[in-house]
Design brief:
Radius of gyration: 18 Å
Number of helices: 6
Structural class: mainly alpha
Helix content: 55-70%
Order of helices and strands: HHHHHH
Length: 195
């Protein structure tokens, strides 16, 4: 990133933690949530890998091509899934943004050393701007949705499981899933700003 390496490590930690929770969400009893969680886990871990400070890992050009291929395939899968659930349109934009950043890094791999540069830039500034606007709007929208969300509790109202009601497992906590999406949206903005 433009600042110290600590900012890059914080971004890596945030994305890896989000990807890990999304893996946990794949154990949900709700099939649609399991499918969405798989795509979000891929995004979280992919973002963590791409955000590694260059002092630790300066990938060769072919690695960026690999990222572009993986996220291009994820974008195609999200496009196919969007016909059944419009939430996958967000996955399509996210995977497309990751593929775009990987292609930009393929074109200017030296920019990864500073995670972007002031000069030669990688990619079309208009597309970067559009993606930044989209993710800024998404962060504001998902943050606003996160505020009033009631948590699911057991029938006894305590959430402890002692009253015979169904306990919400970690894989089915909607407020945590929304918080992960918010975190990944903010991480995407940080990554796009450095492009």
């Amino acid at each position: 990133m433009h600042g110290p390496a600590q900012a890059g490590w914080l971004l890596v930690a945030l994305c890896a933690a989000t990807g890990s929770y999304c893996l946990l969400r794949m154990r949900s009893r709700v099939e649609a949530q399991r499918r969405a969680a798989g795509g979000e886990a891929l995004m979280g871990f992919g973002m963590a890998l791409m955000a590694l400070p260059a002092a630790v890992l300066a990938p060769p050009r072919w690695a960026w091509l690999g990222y572009a291929a993986v996220f291009g395939a994820a974008a195609l899968r999200a496009l196919w899934a969007a016909r059944l659930n419009r939430h996958h349109l967000h996955h399509l934009v996210g995977a497309g943004a990751m593929a775009y950043m990987a292609v930009a890094m393929t074109a200017t791999p030296a920019a990864h050393a500073g995670h972007g540069g002031g000069g030669g830039g990688g990619g079309a500034p208009v597309l970067t701007g559009v993606l930044l606007l989209y993710f800024a709007g998404y962060v504001l929208w998902s943050g606003a949705r996160l505020l009033p969300v009631p948590t699911l509790a057991t029938a006894d109202g305590g959430g402890s499981g002692g009253g015979g009601g169904a306990v919400t497992g970690w894989a089915d906590r909607t407020e945590l899933a929304m918080a992960c999406r918010l975190a990944m949206g903010m991480a995407m903005i940080a990554m796009l700003l450095t492009l």
